[in-house]
Structures are given as C-alpha cells and as structure tokens.
Amino acid sequence: MPSHAQSRRITPEPAGEEGPPLIPDNVPDPPEDEGPAWHIVLDHEGHGVGPDLMGGDRLSLSSEHGREGDFKFSPSLYAQRYDAALDILNKPEWAMGMKKVVDFGCSEWQFFCRLKQLKYTREVVGVDVDEELLRRIRRKIRPFAMDYIQPRTYCPLDVFLMAGSMVDYDTRLQNVDAITAIEVIEHLHPEVLAQVPANIFGRLQPKLAIFTTPNSEFNVLFPNFEGPFRHWDHKFEWTRAEFRDWCHDITDTYPNYSVVFSGVGFGHSDSALTLGPCSQIATFVRQDFEEMSRNGLFLDLSAEDGLLIDDIAQANLTQPMPYEVIEKETYVFKADNRTVHEKILDACQGHFNSVMYNIDYAYVRMEENEGNPDFDPYLYTFSIQSLIEACDLQQMEDISPELVKSSLVSEGYQVDNEYTVQVRKTPWPDSDENDDEDDELEQPEPNEEQFQDPVEIVEEESWD
C-alpha cells in the first residue's frame, strides 16, 4: 500500500531545536528557477519521501504538520484520524471485545503507537502490500524500554507485520475483532476496491470496521489547489454523498452490519463547516455485537475465542495463508494481582496527590478564593464520578460509585451523601524555619593551613 503521504511546500530555514525538514538523499535538488522553496511529498512525521509528482502548493492548507491557509489543524490531521479511530476501538461498551485488531494499509504504521495502548487487545496485525517498506520499518514494532519498565497488566500483546493485500483472505485473521483502513481505499483501483467488501464483510466478518477517506468537498479550501486529487497516488476522492453510497451498498449486501459516519479536520468559518470534515470516517458495527455491547456484555462472540494467529496457522496448514509474516514481537505481561479495593485506592490516592501538589492549580485556587474567609487552602473536594473518570476506573468490571465510596470509606476517607470526598493536604515543611536552623548551626573555624603557600609535590618515578 502506498505511503499515506501528503504534499507540502517546504521553505528551508535555519535549524532550530528540531532542525530543518528532513529530506532524504534520494530526493533531487530543487530546480534552479524554483528558488529556495520547492515541493516534496511528506510522510506522517513530516519527513520527505520523494518529489511532489503533481507539483504545486496545492496541499499547503492541509499539510499534516503545518498551516491550513487561514487556519491550522491542531492536533495535526493525521493525529486526529488516529485518535478518532483509537477512541472508537476503545469505547467502554466494547473495549474488552477488541482482542484482535488488524490495520490494513498500515504503511509506515504510525498508528501502531496508539494501537498498543489498547489494554484488552491480545494481537495487533499491520498489513500492507509493500513488502520492502515493511522490512524497512520492522524495528518500529519492537518494545521500548518503558514497555519493560511498565509492562502490560491485563494480557500480553503479540504484534505482527504482514505483507499482503486487503482483498486476499488469510485464514490466520479469522475471528478478527476490529479492522481499520485509514486513508487507504482512495489508493485502490476500482477493480480492486470492488473486492474489498467481500473479503472484509463476507469472509473476515469483524465486529467493527473503520474506514477513513478524504472528503473531496473540502478541497476548495486549499489555496492554489491544482487537483485533480490531494495526492498523486489517489485513484479517486469522494464527496460525503459518494462515500455514504459506497457504505450503504455494503450494508445492503451485508445486512448484519450497520454504519455511522463522522469525521475529523473541520474548517473554522461557517462556509467551511458546511463542506464537512477534511477526512470522513465510516464505522461499521456487526449488529449482534452492537446489541451485546448495548446490553453491557463485552464477551467475544466467536466460537474459537482464544485461538491466536500462530495456533490457527498450526491447525489449518491446508487453508489459504497468502500473507508473509515480516516481523513478530511479543510485549511482556505482568499480571496485576491487586484486589479491586486496592486498585481503586491506588488510583484515587494517586489522583489526590497529583491535584493537591500541583503548584499551578494551588495558585489558581488561591486567586479564585481571594477574600473568602472560609477558604481552606489545604482542603480539597472531589466527586466520586470525577474520580471514576479521572482515574479511568470505568474500565474495571462492575465499577460503580457505591463501590468507590465503600473503598474510600474503609480507608478512613469521609464521603457525604452526595458522593463527594474531602481530602486534606499535608503541607510541606516550612522552609524558612529550616533555613533559620541552618543559620544557627556552628560554623567551623577557618584553618590557618588553608592560607599557607601550596607545597610543591614531586612526582615519584615509580608512580603507577
């Protein structure tokens, strides 16, 4: 799959803290008549990956890292796409059902840094047709030092890079829970795109499938847009209506799926808002899974729940497995054996300390309560619901305000009938008093030898 690259006009500038844009050796020098500014294609990290074959400054407004004409995407557009997809996968009502996630068209796989944050995911697979690219980026899936210092606590994680096409069925991907295809389908020729639904929704049948693609209606906001598309490798770009038609054709063919639409990268003006998002998103949900998640049931629906990719490969040696495994890594796992009570207390006490000993917040409280004779700067109030959200306790099974309250009360905290808890901050030791004590300490008398002439030291011949 081609790199999810974007085009941007680059003006060389003195290196600052981050240095100038990184242009690889294989990118040609700018033509002499172009002056200091010329056009290259950037990847998601803002690194040059080749010349802009379409030419023009057509995407300066939608640069992944820069300005957007009269406005700027913040966070950058690619980050918004990844965050939106991660939020969908991590929705509390079905997060525990996302055990196996496959990202088609993974390219450089910037998305993996977010995917590995999925707490309940057991396997993550990145698939792309560009085998050479996958071999170059294979190190990206290796664990960082922090992954060993703070290992996963719910389950281990196996990560695969596989070379293959999203229209080919590989039996090792059976029982996949979620499929993502971020800015991929616009790179496919029509005859290839036509085969996608059959493999994704007919054979693999994931619980969840997320597709993103450019919204062509947004292109009019790009200054000097030369078209016909945002990127030289795009085979098409759809309007919102065209994208909806494609998605509704899928749900008509596979009625066990429903679809909802969203997007990221909105303009700020009223006219821009009417054009919709820069990237549009379709989320397909299998209806039986949606019903179970709505009823609070997060269990995997597959009959072979627990079968891992390697297990499936061993048990189905005669089945089609066209994908080539380029790299596999396993992230370490350390079981969290704390009781629910201990987990709640640890999370809440950590949040108490992070709030109470935040100096900036302490000054804000002082300013807000200036002149209030009843204000106690050492007394903080927290609602139980705010603790559940701030401490991410909603991910725990059977969590409830009553359970949090009982845990806090058992530790001696005072919780009123409105489910608020008051916590008193322990003040820091008075530094002025310590300074006074230090001043009173007897100072040593100066040694007269300190003021004598230095003695010449003769180095011994046998020095070793």
UniProtKB/TrEMBL annotation:
Transmembrane annotation, as ranges: none
GO molecular function, one term: small RNA 2'-O-methyltransferase activity
Record organism: Tigriopus californicus
Cofactor list: Mg(2+)
UniProt name for this protein: Small RNA 2'-O-methyltransferase
InterPro entries: Hen1, SAM-dependent_MTases_sf
Keyword Methyltransferase: yes
GO BP: piRNA processing; RNA methylation; siRNA processing
Stretches for region Disordered: 1-38, 420-464
Catalytic activity: small RNA 3'-end nucleotide + S-adenosyl-L-methionine = small RNA 3'-end 2'-O-methylnucleotide + S-adenosyl-L-homocysteine + H(+)
Enzyme Commission number, as recorded: 2.1.1.386
Chain intervals with Acidic residues compositional bias: 430-464
Top EC class, one word: transferase
Classification via PANTHER family: HEN1 (PTHR21404), SMALL RNA 2'-O-METHYLTRANSFERASE (PTHR21404:SF3)
Highest taxon in the source lineage: Eukaryota
Entry keyword set: Magnesium, Metal-binding, Methyltransferase, RNA-binding, RNA-mediated gene silencing, S-adenosyl-L-methionine, Transferase
Family recorded in the similarity comment: Belongs to the methyltransferase superfamily. HEN1 family.
Keyword Metal-binding in annotation: yes
SUPFAM superfamilies according to UniProt: S-adenosyl-L-methionine-dependent methyltransferases
Segment forming the signal sequence: none
GO cellular component, one term: cytoplasm
